[in-house]
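Weekly modeling sync, notes
Attendees: S.R. (lead), two postdocs, one rotation student

Agenda item 3: backlog of single-chain predictions. S.R. asked that every request posted to the team notebook include the full sequence so nobody has to chase files. The rotation student volunteered to paste the first one in as an example of the format we agreed on. Action items at the bottom.

Example entry:
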Amino acid sequence: MLANLKQVAELVDVFSKYGVRKTYKKGDFVIHPGEQPPGVFYILQGLVKAYDITKYDEENLLIIRKQDEIFPLIWALTGKERNVAYQALAPTTTLEITRQRFEKEITQHQGALAPLLDMTLEMYRLHSERILNLEYRTVRERIVSFLLTMSNRFGSRTSRGLLIEAPLRHQDIASSINATRETTSREISALEKKGYIIKDKSFYILKDVDALRNMLR
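Predicted structure, as returned to the notebook:
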């Protein structure tokens, strides 16, 4: 991490001073498909999924934004954004400011650039891992790699194992690993039967992380 606590506080202060607080229920759209972003959002609490729609009319998961992150980040920094939708995955509270205000305040508060760079680098790392994930030959390996990556970002230790605290549908996983939903569902069931993972509704618990890691060696 490049940013220190003072620089992070400087960025948060921008949104605290000028942001409009908004709340969303699970499933609510923050930015609808095809909609121009109305502003720049800082997540006070909750989760927001970013995705686009493929030519096959399927959702393609891009990234899940969490507490203390900003979206749409690339649009905030460059003014350019693909046709990306943003949808709350859990009850979510944000602070929204206009992009004009964002640009002005970031220009005047140079320290706030460091946490933005951290977020950009994290997004680059996640997308790079997604590309590297496709090097695995089997769908099962790609699923395991995806779940391990998600556990690094959203993992929480529990008595049952490493819980990924972000809901994931089979379609979300399938789109991320370039597989069909049917094959993804079958391989997830196989991992459950072997005792490597536990699926609890839309949440995953990695029961044997070492065994999963060994599958990729």
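Discussion: group reviewed the output briefly. The domain at 134-215 is CATH 1.10.10.10 (Arc Repressor Mutant, subunit A).
Action items: rotation student to repeat for the remaining queue; S.R. to check formatting next week.
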